[in-house]
Amino acid sequence: MKFLEDVSLSACVPRPETRGRGVPTRAKTRNPRDRARPRSTGPAAARENARARTFFHSFAGSKKMRPKGHRESRPFAPARSADPPSPRLARRLNAFLSAVNVGDYVVHGQLEAYSCASLSPRRSSDASTPGKTRRSDWDARDSLFRAPRPTFFLLVAPFANAARADVAPLLVAALYWLSFAHNFSRAQANSRASIRNCPSRSIRRW
Amino acid sequence: MMAESPGALSVSPVGPLTDAGSRKTLIYLILTLNHMYPDYDFSALRGHHFTKENAVPASANFAGALPHIVRVKNDVDGLLLESGKAYEATVGAGAEPLSSELWRAIDAVINLVDCDVYTYKAVAEGDPFCDDGNLWSFNYFFYNRKLKRILYFSCRAVSKTADEESDFEEEFDADADARAMDDSFLADGMEMDDEMY
Prior knowledge:
heterodimer, A: mainly alpha, 2 domains, three-stranded mixed beta sheet, elongated, disordered N terminus, disordered C terminus, B: alpha+beta, Protein Transport Mog1p, Chain A, four-stranded antiparallel beta sheet, 5 strands
């Protein structure tokens, strides 16, 4: 049982080869046992684990890599609090649950605790751990923290009249529905010309 | 799709996704899964792929315990019944039942009274919980907002025969590859012979 020891969830950025929506994808490996390989085998895995451990610290220490307009969302970090009350018991249980031979089947269990707490700025400025932050990691994490943006909610704002405010989302939704290839997310409710011109341009092109 | 979006955002097992806290919860769950299963990518999961164990009254009456926690305990203990017997037979362990030690350890870390419990609904093919030979599985996320901790607890039972079958398939594949290489070599040789004659 790895209880808040050295694991940082910041390293868990989405992999670029995401396929499909709402469906977990896995790397294609020929041998099923390759997929289930232990994390700590091989030098590459060791490097990856080391990177995961230092990931938060590299985040915290390199403000220069922060992209413009980045929201102040704090990364995950391992808790610096005291050890859990019974780490020995926890380790023993986790070791037992990792493979329990029960007659006709084997039970594989996992029990891990993570901390979502963020470090304080004083701690985050601690540059004791080396490492560089990759821009892609920032972007990936930032995209996770970004709010879902239903376009029609945002477009309601320019309308002062409540009755007309109901019309705007319907208009934009209809535009999206009718012409998939165009992006109307920047269409403002008070810019009638731009909204009106988009479909006409597409019709001309077609 | 457009008509569903507002509803999907307002209703979710982790709460309304228009709320930053709910989004964070969802992100924590996804990142936990991504971390636990590094060979799988859960980034495309959405709120409806998770279930929250709601605090509805349970049939059993456990004083001092929340109903949804009791229900989770009962489910887990039922599935780990055989494992508990194996635990009692383990040398150096088994002074207490597995269940009590397990939940004591979990409670010590995450403080179950303040926890929200979520489950990932494994329904997709290519899921770690839907691999061949899986007899049953469960996964629970114990999320304590006060402590800002997540404890992930998962178990899956894998049939031994499935393991043997997969071993056999691997050996068969390896033999087939070897045979294919031999056949290709022979075929090349035969062609050469044909040309020679």
